[in-house]
Structures
1.
Amino acid sequence: MYDIILAFITSFALTYLAIPSIIHIAIKKNLMDEPGERRSHKVSTPSLGGIGIFAGTLFSIIMWTPFEYFGDLQYILCAFIIIFLIGAKDDMDPMSPSKKFMGELFAAGILVFRANVRLTSLYGFFGIYEIPEFASIVLSIFTIIVIINAFNLIDGINGLSGSLGLLITFVLGTWFYLVGSLEISIVAFALCGALVAFLKYNITPAQIFMGDTGALLLGLVCSILAIKFIELHNELAGSPYTFKSAPSVAIAILILPLFDTLRVFVLRLIEGKSPFNPDRKHIHHILIDLGLTHMQATGVLFLTNILFILLAIMLQDVGNLALLLIILTLAMGMSIFASRMVERKKLKHTV
């Protein structure tokens, strides 16, 4: 327990102290995120906050993880470094999507093949349980890349990615502590502490953004936590902390980034556009168009994610597929309702 608390405090302190220097250097070297048509901010803002998050998280993990627990953690840290290098390069000198994808694929491969971060079953979805090794590898790599990019895509307004990351790492980190998985709990709470420090500088008026460096790292950590959360249920039979329908509970914990990514991809394909074509169709853009401020929209989405987590816990007995359908149907209904409210608002302004 003390190691986890110290990991949180250490990452918080290091990130909190590092970010002012990062802001100063970013302004001096003109490493700024400029306002634009799709941007929600109005002034040039430094976008290297992820460097502070990475430094605080990595230092804290290495400092406080007991050696006997380190195990596969060395490979997880290797994946961290790959993702950090990709994000930092993209923040300072944008790189092509294909090169970015290859880097993410490399990091995911390290996690799957070396750190054993792997899904080994479909847990009853469509009546399928154990899956062949090749299918396990493909599914795991796909899951990791989807979650990494889901966090990158929702990083569009002040406080949103940091707040959701804080919620997810706190919830899953607490669960890992309760089931005795100390090393993964330290990873979660190290990032948790760094995010608390970052949010001090990211709430409106934002002094810095996390950029791709932070968003990609956040997505990578959450993908590890989600997969480990699902897989550990195979070893915890009879534990009071196990969840029925664990995969669907994991999806509920990550519902906002996952559903928003699925939603915008489907809408873009329906319109005949590339799913990677940037636009203003994200849920946070809808809330901004409704007249909410950045922090109001962040607060609404943060509370919504909490409600989905509580709903999944209460309905875990219905089974994986049924719970997943309930979660997706509710999320779809809420997003459609919000979209129609925006359309009505626009009609009133045109009349």
2.
Amino acid sequence: MASRRPPVRIPSLTGFMAMGLLLVALCFFGLPMVWLMLATSHTDAGLFTAPPLSWGSFANMGAAWENLSTYESAYLVRWATNSLIYSIGGVSLSLIAALPAGFILATQVFPGRRLILILTLIAMITPNAALVLPIYLQMSFLGLDNTRTAMVLATGFFPFGVYLAFIYFATALPREILNAARVDGAGPWRVFASVALPLARPAIALIAFFSFLANWSNYFLALVLLSDDRLHNLPLGLTALISGARALSFSAATGIPIRRPEAIMAALIIIVPVLLIFLFSQRYIRAGLLAGGEKG
């Protein structure tokens, strides 16, 4: 007897509309990224004469990288190193502060708990530009302005991470496990370190990703705190370089070998690390985003 084939499912009108919207979104957001990848393979003049989404040559791409990476004795390497220091330091401080704070707010009842939650939400929705001046005055009072320490300390302030940790521990952490640990005589910090923290990998990945994203692309805070070119991060250093070289203008060249292909490559240098981190950690990020979807 011949086996029956499963019936062919024809997508509904809603399914076609959803696929159409996804295709439009893919073109809207994906094509500019493809163009950025291909544009670095053209010369400055070739960007205006070559067909869209066409490939130039590896030689042009290598020349753009050479001009960008060797400017002023490899300032690009120094700025990239600074960005890594600021980002990794800020992420570490964010995790150290946000995870215990979120756990205590989610599992303990104490006077002022509600006020702390309200202040956390207020700090979370306050525009970053409004916080830059108080942070600068604080670092200046401590004698830390124009130092790497100031940037790491300032970027470690991440109230959104506290809120994410609070939501995760309040909704996704099994209460039975916590109660069993308390019955065995474990205190709050022992419960946090031995029980809650090993189960919080999705929350850790989510907080680390958003903190890294905010720190890696931090421009305004670095502009205010850092006046030494050697301490700049990638967004501040590359923006100053492209602006000083007038790479995006049609005026006469300034003598600095930084034009549009180098400016596009600078944008890719800032974007690509975030994309790679998201691709490798998206499973944990997705789990962390869905952690508060249901109780228990």
3.
Amino acid sequence: MSQQSAVVIATYSRRMRLRLANGDEVNARIKGKRLKPVCGDQVHAEAIENESDWLITSILPRRNQLTRPNNRGQVEVLAANLELLMVVAATSPKPDWYIVDRYLCAAEIMGIDAAVVFNKTDLDPGGDGATTELADYSKIGYSVVRCSAKTAAGIAEIQNVLAGQCAIIVGQSGVGKSSIINRLTANAAQRTASISHKSGEGRHTTVNSVMIPLPGNGSVIDSPGVRDYAPALASSKDAAQGFREIAARSQDCRFANCIHLREPGCAIKQAVAENIISARRYESYKRMMNLTEKLSASRY
């Protein structure tokens, strides 16, 4: 049989599940060791004679890719061909806003839309101090939704944000990504787990990435939860492009190559002093700069 185009809709190490152009879903293996398909990839595949499996023979060029550095400092691709990144935080586990910022940075570098969801509002309607952070994200133009996967509050608003998009839902372990998807799809198939009482951190419940169709139109990739994340940036200078309020105001800096740390006449530092730019977001930017420099150094 000749090659057919397909989309990777689930990954299981070196095994995949594909959706063919005609809508059929099949299991697949990967030809050779160099190919590393991820959820969202467009691939070429062919049926294996006398087997139910198909064989992925090539990956088509990606429009974009969500990346992170692995333990060796090399770039690891998590998903491809996305249109929206939705990062979830929650009342529990305690939000790490720096991780949220790093995901948003990745979305900016990829050139896709992003949204912030704050889950488990049924546990603490006040938001565990999240009001200021969420207001800052809204101020700089991100869609912000408060929700409760338990009560379904805010789920309709999330549906509106996701409508017609190929999206990925990301965030710390235990924030309720799979529970939100269950609500969105009215399907309890996505595995969920409670917070570990011993550590207070979330248990990893999504072992492999899977693309789930949404009612009406669009799809969402449920990715494994993380305790930390950073985008794989080419250099620390790229960090400024990942913080949209810094990128927008950097044109007012005195020097064209200003990196907004110690330069005199820096418009970003002035904006932080005047509370135009969030001091915490600026601290997040500086951390992203330092982390990227360390990761770049580890590659050599």
